[in-house]
Amino acid sequence: MTDVLPIFYFFVYFCCFYHIGCQETGNVRNILNEIFETQKYDKRVRPVTNESRSIGVSVSLFTSGINYLDEKTGVFSVTGFLWVTWRDEFLVWEPKLYNNVSSFTIPQDSIWMPDLFLRNGVKEPTGLGGDFYYLPVKYTGKVAWWPYSVFEARCKVDVAYFPFDTQICRLVFSIWNHDNKTVNIIKTDRYVRLYHFFENGIWSIAENKSYLELDEGALFNQLKVSFTLKRKHQFYLWNLIFPIILLGFLKIFAFLIPAQSGEKVSFAVTLFLSYGVFLNLLTSSLPENSDSVCLICAYMVIQLTLGVLLVFIVSMQVHICNREKNLLISRYEMRLIRLLKKNSLEEFNRRHDGKDTDWTVLSSAIDKLMLILMTAFEFFLIIVFSVMFYVDA
After folding, report:
1. What is the pLDDT of residue 10?
2. Are 185 and 221 in contact (CB under 8 A)?
3. Which of 65, 313, 373, 391 is the most buried (most CB within 10 A)?
4. Reported confidence tier of residue 19, pLDDT bands at 50, 70, 90
5. What is the H or E stretch that residue 83 is in?
6. Whole-structure pTM value
Protein backbone atom coordinates (compact mmCIF):
# COMPACT_ATOMS: atom_id res chain seq x y z
CA MET A 1 0.00 0.00 0.00
CA THR A 2 2.80 2.38 0.82
CA ASP A 3 4.36 1.83 -2.60
CA VAL A 4 1.16 2.93 -4.33
CA LEU A 5 0.86 6.30 -2.54
CA PRO A 6 3.80 8.03 -4.31
CA ILE A 7 2.38 6.99 -7.68
CA PHE A 8 -1.04 8.31 -6.66
CA TYR A 9 0.40 11.67 -5.56
CA PHE A 10 2.31 12.02 -8.80
CA PHE A 11 -0.86 11.28 -10.79
CA VAL A 12 -2.83 13.94 -8.89
CA TYR A 13 -0.03 16.51 -9.39
CA PHE A 14 0.20 15.76 -13.10
CA CYS A 15 -3.55 15.98 -13.70
CA CYS A 16 -4.16 19.12 -11.64
CA PHE A 17 -1.09 21.35 -11.59
CA TYR A 18 0.11 20.61 -15.08
CA HIS A 19 -3.34 21.41 -16.39
CA ILE A 20 -3.39 24.68 -14.51
CA GLY A 21 0.03 25.63 -15.98
CA CYS A 22 -1.24 25.00 -19.52
CA GLN A 23 -4.32 27.01 -18.79
CA GLU A 24 -2.23 29.99 -17.57
CA THR A 25 -0.01 29.83 -20.63
CA GLY A 26 -3.09 29.87 -22.81
CA ASN A 27 -4.41 32.87 -20.93
CA VAL A 28 -1.19 34.79 -21.55
CA ARG A 29 -1.49 33.92 -25.23
CA ASN A 30 -5.05 35.22 -25.22
CA ILE A 31 -3.93 38.47 -23.61
CA LEU A 32 -1.24 38.94 -26.27
CA ASN A 33 -3.71 38.20 -29.06
CA GLU A 34 -6.15 40.69 -27.62
CA ILE A 35 -3.50 43.44 -27.35
CA PHE A 36 -1.50 42.88 -30.53
CA GLU A 37 -4.12 41.40 -32.90
CA THR A 38 -7.47 42.78 -31.83
CA GLN A 39 -6.38 46.18 -30.50
CA LYS A 40 -3.57 46.47 -33.10
CA TYR A 41 -0.81 47.50 -30.67
CA ASP A 42 1.78 49.62 -32.51
CA LYS A 43 5.12 50.24 -30.82
CA ARG A 44 5.72 53.25 -33.07
CA VAL A 45 2.97 55.16 -31.23
CA ARG A 46 3.41 56.68 -27.81
CA PRO A 47 1.38 54.50 -25.40
CA VAL A 48 -1.07 57.15 -24.18
CA THR A 49 -4.76 57.43 -24.96
CA ASN A 50 -4.54 61.22 -24.82
CA GLU A 51 -1.72 62.61 -26.97
CA SER A 52 -1.58 65.80 -24.91
CA ARG A 53 -0.32 63.89 -21.87
CA SER A 54 3.33 63.19 -21.16
CA ILE A 55 4.68 59.75 -20.29
CA GLY A 56 6.45 59.75 -16.93
CA VAL A 57 9.59 57.61 -16.97
CA SER A 58 11.16 56.74 -13.63
CA VAL A 59 14.93 56.14 -13.81
CA SER A 60 17.26 54.79 -11.11
CA LEU A 61 20.86 53.62 -11.37
CA PHE A 62 22.18 50.50 -9.65
CA THR A 63 25.97 50.56 -9.57
CA SER A 64 27.98 47.34 -9.53
CA GLY A 65 31.46 48.89 -9.51
CA ILE A 66 33.83 51.62 -10.63
CA ASN A 67 35.96 50.32 -13.50
CA TYR A 68 38.45 53.15 -13.88
CA LEU A 69 39.01 56.88 -14.13
CA ASP A 70 41.58 57.68 -16.80
CA GLU A 71 43.29 60.92 -15.75
CA LYS A 72 44.97 61.43 -19.13
CA THR A 73 41.86 61.10 -21.30
CA GLY A 74 39.30 62.20 -18.70
CA VAL A 75 37.10 59.10 -19.17
CA PHE A 76 35.07 57.71 -16.26
CA SER A 77 33.76 54.14 -16.51
CA VAL A 78 31.18 52.50 -14.25
CA THR A 79 29.34 49.18 -14.51
CA GLY A 80 25.70 48.86 -13.52
CA PHE A 81 22.15 48.82 -14.75
CA LEU A 82 19.25 51.21 -14.94
CA TRP A 83 15.89 50.53 -13.37
CA VAL A 84 13.40 52.18 -15.73
CA THR A 85 9.65 52.04 -15.22
CA TRP A 86 6.74 53.67 -17.03
CA ARG A 87 3.03 53.03 -17.71
CA ASP A 88 1.96 51.76 -21.10
CA GLU A 89 -1.77 52.50 -21.41
CA PHE A 90 -2.12 50.05 -24.30
CA LEU A 91 -0.82 47.11 -22.23
CA VAL A 92 -3.80 46.98 -19.87
CA TRP A 93 -6.17 44.05 -19.28
CA GLU A 94 -8.63 42.76 -16.72
CA PRO A 95 -7.09 39.83 -14.77
CA LYS A 96 -10.53 38.36 -13.94
CA LEU A 97 -11.16 37.72 -17.62
CA TYR A 98 -7.95 35.70 -17.96
CA ASN A 99 -7.99 33.44 -14.91
CA ASN A 100 -6.33 36.12 -12.68
CA VAL A 101 -3.19 36.42 -14.82
CA SER A 102 -1.74 39.69 -13.55
CA SER A 103 1.63 39.84 -15.34
CA PHE A 104 3.81 38.36 -18.05
CA THR A 105 7.14 39.05 -19.74
CA ILE A 106 7.64 40.22 -23.29
CA PRO A 107 10.71 40.86 -25.51
CA GLN A 108 12.08 44.37 -25.52
CA ASP A 109 11.61 44.92 -29.25
CA SER A 110 7.90 44.07 -29.12
CA ILE A 111 6.69 47.16 -27.27
CA TRP A 112 7.30 50.88 -27.13
CA MET A 113 10.53 51.88 -25.32
CA PRO A 114 11.74 55.28 -24.09
CA ASP A 115 14.73 56.55 -26.09
CA LEU A 116 16.95 56.90 -23.03
CA PHE A 117 20.68 57.54 -23.55
CA LEU A 118 23.84 58.70 -21.76
CA ARG A 119 24.15 62.37 -22.64
CA ASN A 120 27.83 62.87 -21.74
CA GLY A 121 29.04 59.51 -23.04
CA VAL A 122 32.28 59.12 -24.99
CA LYS A 123 31.07 56.32 -27.27
CA GLU A 124 28.73 56.46 -30.21
CA PRO A 125 25.18 56.58 -28.78
CA THR A 126 23.40 53.24 -29.12
CA GLY A 127 20.19 51.89 -27.71
CA LEU A 128 20.23 50.39 -24.25
CA GLY A 129 19.34 46.77 -23.62
CA GLY A 130 19.20 44.13 -26.36
CA ASP A 131 17.14 41.50 -28.14
CA PHE A 132 17.52 39.02 -25.27
CA TYR A 133 15.90 41.37 -22.71
CA TYR A 134 12.43 40.38 -21.49
CA LEU A 135 10.40 43.06 -19.75
CA PRO A 136 7.81 42.26 -17.04
CA VAL A 137 4.42 43.86 -17.71
CA LYS A 138 1.65 44.19 -15.12
CA TYR A 139 -2.07 44.32 -15.86
CA THR A 140 -2.10 48.03 -14.92
CA GLY A 141 0.25 48.74 -17.83
CA LYS A 142 3.33 49.25 -15.66
CA VAL A 143 6.48 48.15 -17.49
CA ALA A 144 9.89 47.57 -15.87
CA TRP A 145 13.19 47.58 -17.76
CA TRP A 146 16.68 46.77 -16.41
CA PRO A 147 19.26 47.50 -19.13
CA TYR A 148 22.74 46.45 -17.99
CA SER A 149 25.71 48.32 -19.44
CA VAL A 150 29.22 49.70 -18.98
CA PHE A 151 28.71 53.46 -18.89
CA GLU A 152 31.67 55.57 -20.03
CA ALA A 153 31.39 59.33 -19.66
CA ARG A 154 33.57 62.41 -19.81
CA CYS A 155 34.90 63.62 -16.47
CA LYS A 156 36.95 66.73 -15.79
CA VAL A 157 39.95 65.72 -13.68
CA ASP A 158 41.67 68.09 -11.25
CA VAL A 159 45.04 66.65 -10.18
CA ALA A 160 46.21 69.58 -8.09
CA TYR A 161 46.22 67.50 -4.91
CA PHE A 162 47.37 64.20 -6.43
CA PRO A 163 47.61 61.60 -4.90
CA PHE A 164 45.30 62.87 -2.15
CA ASP A 165 42.75 64.19 -4.65
CA THR A 166 38.99 63.83 -4.80
CA GLN A 167 37.24 63.80 -8.17
CA ILE A 168 33.58 64.42 -8.98
CA CYS A 169 32.28 62.56 -12.05
CA ARG A 170 28.74 62.58 -13.40
CA LEU A 171 26.54 60.41 -15.55
CA VAL A 172 23.85 62.43 -17.33
CA PHE A 173 20.83 60.50 -18.65
CA SER A 174 18.28 62.12 -20.90
CA ILE A 175 15.62 61.43 -23.52
CA TRP A 176 16.91 61.82 -27.08
CA ASN A 177 14.00 62.67 -29.39
CA HIS A 178 11.10 63.46 -27.05
CA ASP A 179 10.90 66.69 -25.08
CA ASN A 180 9.50 66.82 -21.57
CA LYS A 181 5.99 67.48 -22.90
CA THR A 182 5.85 64.02 -24.48
CA VAL A 183 8.31 61.86 -22.47
CA ASN A 184 9.55 63.13 -19.14
CA ILE A 185 11.95 61.73 -16.52
CA ILE A 186 10.18 61.93 -13.17
CA LYS A 187 11.30 61.77 -9.55
CA THR A 188 11.86 58.54 -7.67
CA ASP A 189 12.61 57.77 -4.02
CA ARG A 190 16.28 57.20 -4.75
CA TYR A 191 18.08 57.56 -8.06
CA VAL A 192 21.33 55.73 -7.34
CA ARG A 193 22.04 52.59 -5.34
CA LEU A 194 24.77 49.99 -4.98
CA TYR A 195 24.06 46.44 -6.14
CA HIS A 196 26.56 43.58 -5.62
CA PHE A 197 29.22 46.29 -5.55
CA PHE A 198 32.90 45.41 -6.01
CA GLU A 199 35.62 47.75 -4.77
CA ASN A 200 38.06 49.47 -7.10
CA GLY A 201 41.78 49.23 -6.29
CA ILE A 202 42.41 52.94 -6.89
CA TRP A 203 39.14 54.77 -6.17
CA SER A 204 36.54 54.57 -3.44
CA ILE A 205 33.11 56.19 -3.53
CA ALA A 206 32.95 58.85 -0.82
CA GLU A 207 29.46 60.03 -1.79
CA ASN A 208 26.90 59.62 -4.55
CA LYS A 209 23.87 61.75 -5.23
CA SER A 210 21.53 62.58 -8.07
CA TYR A 211 19.07 65.23 -9.12
CA LEU A 212 16.80 66.23 -11.99
CA GLU A 213 17.21 69.40 -14.02
CA LEU A 214 16.37 70.81 -17.41
CA ASP A 215 18.97 71.04 -20.14
CA GLU A 216 20.29 74.31 -21.58
CA GLY A 217 17.31 74.73 -23.89
CA ALA A 218 14.79 73.84 -21.14
CA LEU A 219 13.28 71.20 -23.43
CA PHE A 220 14.57 67.92 -22.01
CA ASN A 221 14.52 66.76 -18.43
CA GLN A 222 17.76 65.01 -17.52
CA LEU A 223 18.95 62.90 -14.61
CA LYS A 224 22.41 63.69 -13.28
CA VAL A 225 24.08 61.04 -11.13
CA SER A 226 27.15 62.40 -9.33
CA PHE A 227 29.95 60.23 -7.93
CA THR A 228 32.49 61.68 -5.49
CA LEU A 229 35.60 59.54 -5.90
CA LYS A 230 38.44 59.58 -3.38
CA ARG A 231 41.78 58.18 -4.46
CA LYS A 232 43.35 55.43 -2.37
CA HIS A 233 46.78 56.97 -1.76
CA GLN A 234 48.63 54.16 0.04
CA PHE A 235 50.41 52.97 -3.12
CA TYR A 236 51.63 56.46 -4.05
CA LEU A 237 52.53 57.23 -0.45
CA TRP A 238 55.02 54.36 -0.23
CA ASN A 239 56.24 54.34 -3.82
CA LEU A 240 56.37 58.05 -4.63
CA ILE A 241 55.96 60.45 -1.70
CA PHE A 242 58.37 58.86 0.79
CA PRO A 243 61.18 58.30 -1.78
CA ILE A 244 60.92 61.95 -2.87
CA ILE A 245 61.15 63.16 0.74
CA LEU A 246 64.12 60.88 1.39
CA LEU A 247 65.88 62.19 -1.72
CA GLY A 248 65.33 65.71 -0.40
CA PHE A 249 67.08 64.90 2.87
CA LEU A 250 69.79 63.08 0.95
CA LYS A 251 70.89 66.43 -0.48
CA ILE A 252 71.88 67.49 3.02
CA PHE A 253 74.50 64.75 3.20
CA ALA A 254 76.29 66.25 0.21
CA PHE A 255 77.68 68.87 2.56
CA LEU A 256 79.16 66.21 4.81
CA ILE A 257 81.47 65.03 2.00
CA PRO A 258 84.82 66.89 1.95
CA ALA A 259 85.38 68.89 -1.23
CA GLN A 260 88.90 67.50 -1.63
CA SER A 261 87.57 63.90 -1.80
CA GLY A 262 86.56 64.28 -5.47
CA GLU A 263 83.08 62.73 -4.98
CA LYS A 264 81.12 65.81 -4.01
CA VAL A 265 80.12 66.96 -7.51
CA SER A 266 79.24 63.49 -8.79
CA PHE A 267 77.01 62.92 -5.73
CA ALA A 268 75.15 66.19 -6.36
CA VAL A 269 74.65 65.44 -10.08
CA THR A 270 73.32 61.95 -9.28
CA LEU A 271 70.74 63.43 -6.91
CA PHE A 272 69.65 65.92 -9.58
CA LEU A 273 69.16 63.14 -12.15
CA SER A 274 67.16 61.08 -9.63
CA TYR A 275 64.62 63.87 -9.30
CA GLY A 276 64.41 64.08 -13.07
CA VAL A 277 63.51 60.38 -13.24
CA PHE A 278 60.80 60.72 -10.58
CA LEU A 279 59.35 63.79 -12.32
CA ASN A 280 59.20 61.91 -15.61
CA LEU A 281 57.38 58.97 -13.96
CA LEU A 282 54.88 61.33 -12.36
CA THR A 283 54.07 63.39 -15.46
CA SER A 284 53.57 60.25 -17.56
CA SER A 285 50.52 59.30 -15.45
CA LEU A 286 48.93 62.76 -15.21
CA PRO A 287 46.68 64.46 -17.80
CA GLU A 288 48.33 66.83 -20.22
CA ASN A 289 46.35 69.98 -19.48
CA SER A 290 47.01 73.39 -18.01
CA ASP A 291 43.85 73.76 -15.93
CA SER A 292 45.64 72.99 -12.68
CA VAL A 293 49.18 72.40 -11.41
CA CYS A 294 49.92 69.28 -9.42
CA LEU A 295 51.42 70.18 -6.05
CA ILE A 296 53.69 67.13 -6.14
CA CYS A 297 55.04 68.32 -9.50
CA ALA A 298 55.59 71.78 -8.02
CA TYR A 299 57.43 70.18 -5.08
CA MET A 300 59.65 68.20 -7.44
CA VAL A 301 60.40 71.29 -9.55
CA ILE A 302 61.50 73.06 -6.36
CA GLN A 303 63.69 70.08 -5.53
CA LEU A 304 65.16 70.16 -9.04
CA THR A 305 65.92 73.86 -8.56
CA LEU A 306 67.62 73.04 -5.26
CA GLY A 307 69.50 70.29 -7.08
CA VAL A 308 70.85 72.83 -9.59
CA LEU A 309 71.82 75.11 -6.68
CA LEU A 310 73.50 72.15 -4.98
CA VAL A 311 75.58 71.36 -8.07
CA PHE A 312 76.59 75.02 -8.34
CA ILE A 313 77.62 75.27 -4.66
CA VAL A 314 79.65 72.06 -4.56
CA SER A 315 81.34 73.05 -7.83
CA MET A 316 82.31 76.35 -6.26
CA GLN A 317 83.64 74.50 -3.20
CA VAL A 318 85.81 72.28 -5.36
CA HIS A 319 87.03 75.39 -7.17
CA ILE A 320 87.81 77.11 -3.83
CA CYS A 321 89.80 74.11 -2.58
CA ASN A 322 91.93 74.25 -5.73
CA ARG A 323 92.82 77.93 -5.43
CA GLU A 324 96.42 78.94 -5.20
CA LYS A 325 97.54 79.15 -1.58
CA ASN A 326 99.17 82.56 -2.01
CA LEU A 327 95.88 84.29 -2.91
CA LEU A 328 94.38 86.73 -0.43
CA ILE A 329 91.09 85.94 1.25
CA SER A 330 88.24 88.50 1.06
CA ARG A 331 86.65 90.05 4.11
CA TYR A 332 83.32 88.31 3.45
CA GLU A 333 85.03 84.91 3.36
CA MET A 334 86.86 85.81 6.59
CA ARG A 335 83.53 86.70 8.26
CA LEU A 336 82.08 83.35 7.23
CA ILE A 337 85.06 81.52 8.73
CA ARG A 338 84.86 83.52 11.95
CA LEU A 339 81.12 82.79 12.23
CA LEU A 340 81.13 79.06 11.55
CA LYS A 341 84.69 77.79 12.03
CA LYS A 342 85.95 79.52 15.19
CA ASN A 343 87.92 76.47 16.28
CA SER A 344 89.99 76.59 13.07
CA LEU A 345 90.41 80.35 13.01
CA GLU A 346 93.77 80.45 14.88
CA GLU A 347 95.35 77.89 12.53
CA PHE A 348 93.88 79.70 9.55
CA ASN A 349 95.30 83.10 10.71
CA ARG A 350 98.75 81.60 11.21
CA ARG A 351 98.83 80.23 7.67
CA HIS A 352 97.23 83.33 6.25
CA ASP A 353 99.84 85.59 7.87
CA GLY A 354 102.48 83.44 6.27
CA LYS A 355 100.94 83.91 2.86
CA ASP A 356 99.84 80.25 2.93
CA THR A 357 96.01 80.18 2.84
CA ASP A 358 94.22 76.96 3.75
CA TRP A 359 91.13 77.11 1.50
CA THR A 360 89.66 73.87 2.92
CA VAL A 361 88.68 75.85 6.03
CA LEU A 362 86.52 78.15 3.89
CA SER A 363 84.99 75.12 2.13
CA SER A 364 84.18 73.57 5.53
CA ALA A 365 82.53 76.82 6.64
CA ILE A 366 80.34 76.77 3.50
CA ASP A 367 79.45 73.14 4.22
CA LYS A 368 78.31 74.00 7.72
CA LEU A 369 76.28 77.01 6.55
CA MET A 370 74.52 75.08 3.75
CA LEU A 371 73.89 72.11 6.03
CA ILE A 372 71.91 74.34 8.38
CA LEU A 373 70.06 76.21 5.60
CA MET A 374 69.22 73.11 3.53
CA THR A 375 67.93 71.18 6.56
CA ALA A 376 65.72 74.08 7.62
CA PHE A 377 64.41 74.55 4.07
CA GLU A 378 63.56 70.84 3.64
CA PHE A 379 61.52 70.82 6.84
CA PHE A 380 59.85 74.06 5.77
CA LEU A 381 58.82 72.54 2.40
CA ILE A 382 57.42 69.41 4.03
CA ILE A 383 55.36 71.45 6.51
CA VAL A 384 54.00 73.81 3.82
CA PHE A 385 52.93 71.04 1.41
CA SER A 386 51.53 68.91 4.23
CA VAL A 387 49.33 71.81 5.35
CA MET A 388 48.14 72.36 1.77
CA PHE A 389 47.15 68.70 1.38
CA TYR A 390 45.53 68.66 4.80
CA VAL A 391 43.39 71.73 4.04
CA ASP A 392 42.09 70.07 0.84
CA ALA A 393 41.34 66.82 2.68
Report:
1. 40
2. yes
3. 313
4. very low
5. strand 75-87
6. 0.74
